[in-house]
Amino acid sequence: MRKNPPKASPKNLPSFRKRFSALQNLPRFFALVWETNKALTIGNIIFRLIKSALPLLVLYIGKEIIDEVIRLMDHRTDSHQYLWILVGAELALTIISDLLNRCITLFDSLLGDLVANKTSVDLVHHAAKLDLYQFENPVFYDKLERARRQTSGRTVLLSQTLAQMQDILTLISLGAGLVVFNPWLILILIVAVIPSFIGETHFNEKTYSLTRSWTPERRELDYLRYLGSSAETVKEVKVFGLENYLASRFKSLSDEYYDANKKIAISRAGWGYLLSAIGTFAYYGAYLFVLLQTLSGLITIGTMTFLSGSFQRMHGMLQGIMTRFSGIAENALYLQDLFDFFEIQPTIPANESGKIVPKPIRKGIVFENVGFKYPDNDFWALRNLSFTIQPGEKLALVGENGAGKTTLVKLLASLYKPTEGRILIDGVDLQDYQLADLRANIGIIFQDYIRYEMSVSDNIAVGDISNIDDKAAIENAANMSMALDVISGLPNKFEQVLGKRFKDGTELSGGQWQKIALARAYMRNAQIVVLDEPTSALDARAEHEVFKRFSGLIQGKMAVLISHRFSTVRMADRILFLEKGKLIEYGSHEALLDQDGKYAELFNLQAEGYL
Ligand SMILES: Nc1ncnc2c1ncn2[C@@H]1O[C@H](COP(=O)(O)OP(=O)(O)OP(=O)(O)O)[C@@H](O)[C@H]1O
C-alpha cells in the first residue's frame, strides 16, 4: 500500500503555458471527429451557427413588441398588424430554437459515441502493436490506463468546444447590439468575469494534477475491486476469507483519494462563490445604470428590456465561456494522455517490407549465442544459448522453474528481442522477417493461455481467426486435440459458451480447458508449433496420449515442447536442458541418459516416483 500519497502541490501542477499549449491538441481532436463522421460534424456545425444568431433576434423582437404595445396604448386606433407579425416571428423563432436544441443534443451524443468507439478501436489496435515488455512496465500501464479513461471521458470535449464556438458567436452578435448603446457596459462585463475565470483555471489545474498523480493508486483500486468482486477470484477470496482484508485495503486507499479530492472541491466551491459574487455586483451596477437612463427618458422601455436582457444573457454567457474555456483546456490536457499513448512506438517494428518466412523452412532455426535480460532485471534470464532445431525436429525444453524455458519461446516468437546474439530461420535473422508473417508461421500455446469466455467454437478458432467460420476445420482441430469428447458432453456442443461470465455459460475443468486450448495449435497451419506446458492439468495417461497424437499429427513440422513430465519429454527427438538460463545438456533422451548428468538424475528420480 502507498506510504506517501501524492499531493496536487504547486510543483507538480502543469504550468499555465503547458495548459494553454494543450489547446494545440484540439485541431488533432477535431481531425479525429471529422474522420469519424463527416455528415454529423457538418450538420452539428451548421445547426450551431444558426442557433448562435437566434438570441439577438429574439431580444430584438421582444424590444419591438414592447415598444409597439406601448405605442398602440397611446394610439388606440392604429392597426395591430405589425404587433401580430412580431409575435408570430417570436413564436417561430422559439419553435426553431427548440428544434435546433434537440438536433444539436442528438448530433452531439451520436458523434460523441462514435468518437468514443473509434478511439477504443484505435486503442486496441495500437496496444496490439506494442511490445510485450512495454505491458510489463508499470509506467506504461499508467499511460495505458489514462488513455483508456480518455476514450469515453473526453467526448464531452466535443460538445464543449462546439458550444463554446456557438456562444462566442452569440456573444459577438449581442455585443454588437450593446456597443451601439454603450461600449462601457461590455468592458464592465469582461472585468467582472475575469476573477471567476482565473479561479476556475486554478482549480481545474489542481484537479487534473491530482487525478494524474493518483493514476497508479486508481489502478490499484480497480484491481482491488476486481479481486474482491469477480468470478475468477471469488473461490480463493472465500476460502482464504480475504473479503475484509480487500475491503479495508480498498477503503483506506479510496479514503485517501476522497480526502485529497474533497479538499480541492471545498476550496473550489468557496472561491467560486466569492469570485462570481464580484460578477453579480458588476451586473447589477450596469443594470442600475440602464434603469436610470430609462427613467431620465434617454431610452425607451423596449430598449431597456433589450439592453437588460442582452446584458443578462451576455453576463451568463461570458461567465459560461470563461468557465468552459478552462474546462476545455483541462480536457485538452487529458487528451494529451491519449495522444501520448498513440505516440508510443514498439521497439520490435512490424517490418512490413521485410522478408517472408520460407515455405518450407529448409535449414531450420539456429540460436546463435543468444542472451536475454528482462528490462528491469539485472540478471540474465538466458545466456550463451547456441543450438539448432532441424526441419521436422521435435525439441523438448526441460529445466526447473525459472530456468528460462518460456523466455526462450517468447524470443522465438519475437515477443522480445534478444539482448545479445541472434536467432536465425534459414540463415536470416528473425528481425529481418515481416513480423506478421513470422508470427503466422509460429503457433504457440502458452501455459497461461487465455480462457475466452466465448463459445467453444470461438475458443478454438482464435488459433486461426481468419478461419472462424470454417466449422469443419474447427471440428477437425478439436478431434486432434482430444477435445471432441469434452465438447460432445456439452449441452450446446460447439456453440456452448464457456465460463460463467455470460448467460448459459458452462465452466470446464482445468484439463478440459487445456484440450480446447490445444486445439488452437491444430487450427493454425504453422510451420513451427510450440506447446509451453499446455498439458500440465491433464492426467498422466491423457498427456501421454495427447503428445503421442501430437507427434504423429504434426509430422514434418518443427515443434518445441515444454513439459515437466519426463515420460512426455522422452518422445522428443532432442532435449535441451536449461539451468538458470544456461544450456547445460543437449541431445536425445538416450544420449542424455548415457551422459548420466542432470537430465539422467531427474529422469530416474521421476521414474522412481520421487518427482
Ligand atoms: N516478464 C518478466 N519480467 C521480468 N522477469 C521475468 C519475466 N518473466 C520471467 N522472468 C524471469 O526470468 C526467468 C526465467 O523465467 P521463465 O518464465 O522463462 O522460466 P521457465 O523456465 O519457463 O519457468 P516455469 O517452469 O516455472 O514456467 C525467471 O527468473 C523469471 O523470474
Automatic annotation (TrEMBL):
The keyword Lyase does not apply. Coiled coil: none annotated. It holds the Pfam family ABC_tran. The keyword ATP-binding applies. The chain crosses the membrane at residues 45-62, 82-100, 168-198. It comes from Dyadobacter arcticus. This is ATP-binding cassette subfamily B protein. Residues 365-605 form the ABC transporter domain.
